[in-house]
Amino acid sequence: MSERYERGMAVRRAVLGDDHVDRAENGKTDLDGPFQTLITEGAWGTVWSSEGISARERSMLTLALLAALGNFEEIAMHIRATARTGASKQDVLEAFQHVAVYAGVPRANQALKIARETYAEMEQGNQQA
């Protein structure tokens, strides 16, 4: 694999956790294998590996963008990742407040609902990182 892939896999594991990445890797098929490589190299090996902003800030941006665009299916995963990126509950609330003002209250409300549920699961020890 490429250097960018290796760097991406290391960052992906650091942010999402080994269990999550192992599940994704073990579930790869011939159909989605190239897509997983694209995500690892592009999202994790380029964007998340950049030293331009901190992992905490990147986490907040990612959550805000997911909510603003209505991509709710990945919010729980990125809420769980805040335990590794250093983004606090207050940081997440601030990000979603920006979403409410700039992208719409319903999207921010749905994102906060997912965040509350995910934090509750995390506090009960059911992280499924």
Structural summary, described in words:
There is one protein chain. By secondary structure, the protein is mostly helical. It has two domains: 1-50, no CATH class; 54-128, Up-down Bundle (AhpD-like). The chain has helices at residues 3-16, 18-26, 33-47, 55-68, 75-85, 89-102, 105-123. The longest helix has 19 residues, at 105-123. The protein is globular.
Short descriptors:
2 domains, single chain, 129 residues, 4-carboxymuconolactone decarboxylase, AhpD-like, mainly alpha
Reconstruct the topology from this structure.
Blueprint: H1 3-16, H2 18-26, H3 33-47, H4 55-68, H5 75-85, H6 89-102, H7 105-123
Helix pairs in contact: 1-2, 1-3, 4-5, 4-6, 4-7, 5-7, 6-7
The overall strand count is 0
Reading the helices and strands in chain order gives HHHHHHH
Report the C-alpha radius of gyration, rounded.
Answer: 15 Å
Write the CATH homologous superfamily of the largest domain: AhpD-like
Give the proportion of residues in helices.
over 70%
Number of helices: 7
Q: Give the uncertain stretches in residue-range form.
A: none
Q: How much β-strand is present in the residues?
A: under 5%
Q: Indicate the CATH topology of the largest domain.
A: AhpD-like
Q: Which class of the largest domain in CATH terms?
A: Mainly Alpha
